[in-house]
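User: Quick sanity check before I run a bigger batch. Here is a single chain. Can you write out its predicted 3D structure?
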Amino acid sequence: MQAAIELRDVVKRYGAATALHGVSLGIADNEFFTLLGPSGCGKTTLLRLIAGFEDVTAGEILLFGEPIADREPNRRPVNTVFQHYALFPHMTVLDNVAFGLKMKGVGLSARRARAGRMLEMVHLSAFADRMPSQLSGGQQQRVALARALAPEPRVLLLDEPLSALDLKLRQAMRVELKQLQEETGITFVFVTHDQEEALTMSDRIAVMSAGRVQQVGLPREIYEAPVNRFVADFIGETNLLEVAVEAVEGGMARVVLPGGHRLSCPSATAAAGRHHLSIRPERVALAPAGAELEAAWFIATRPVRTRGLWLFLITVPYWVNLLIRTVSLRFLLRDTGPLNQGLMGLGLIDAPLPIVNTNLAVQLGLFYSYLPFWSSSPRSAPSSPPISSAAPGPS
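Assistant: Done. Predicted structure follows.
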């Protein structure tokens, strides 16, 4: 897939302060890509460098394979939707949307037709003759989007465009933004500090902190497999425990909890030592104490290469027990078995009853096979059940 934007070791300094430290990224064509991070992490600075509003101190930015360092902002195939929409208050909605086309020298009839199509796309055709002051915040945001899309840019940059809207309107606009991106096929680069926005809309996310990219990946990858403590703590809710990693093998770490318990979990690190275990709240489940839980815990804490063997060894008694009971049941119920022979000896029947391979035999077999486990079934949960969890690993 062709890269719409490539950033190669991009550095941005303001005097002695460094805002970006050697950032390298590749953003695919027709991708909804999000720069996510806390305030001051450098995400808006990066957006302004792509737009041409700031000069790169070092490194290189390419748009569709072409360097753009010497291009002025108005000569880049890029448009920007700002946090504050910057609509012209003295122009109608239609004229606001057509303004970029006018600056490009597009004729009056052509630009008004194009602006009309953009307003139809954002469901504002009925508001074409209104002034911006007569629109709600969400409507103004859609006008700004239509104005940015009208010149048909190849890349659209969005600098926290939803931050000024209330919660319900933000949620509705997320859906509309994603639909617009899919309809137009334009590369969207979206800047936000809102994790929910990033996780729900993005094809991929770059998490930033202190002018550096911490992790790039699919939303699920970012959430499920954070590469370090910052990403784990910043994305969603989590509990971080400092643990000792004894060994890492096949992407699984064997860790020792503060209380001395051992467990195995997926790991983002390849080195033993002191690390942090991230436990998502939704991955914690309460379970009653019992042999089943102890066996499951034992298997989960074994090295990955031996888990299959331990599972086989622990379940062997069950399968042997089931086999013995199945054979003995068939022996009891067959035509020449003790049951038929006893009934015939008492004179209750003249010929053997066809019991084997009937529904009754199946029901008896299931009941007979389940008897050993009936006594171990939990009747009530203990007052303080242990916690079992599956969580992202140490980072």
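Residues 375-392 have pLDDT under 50 and may be disordered.

User: Great, the batch can go ahead then.
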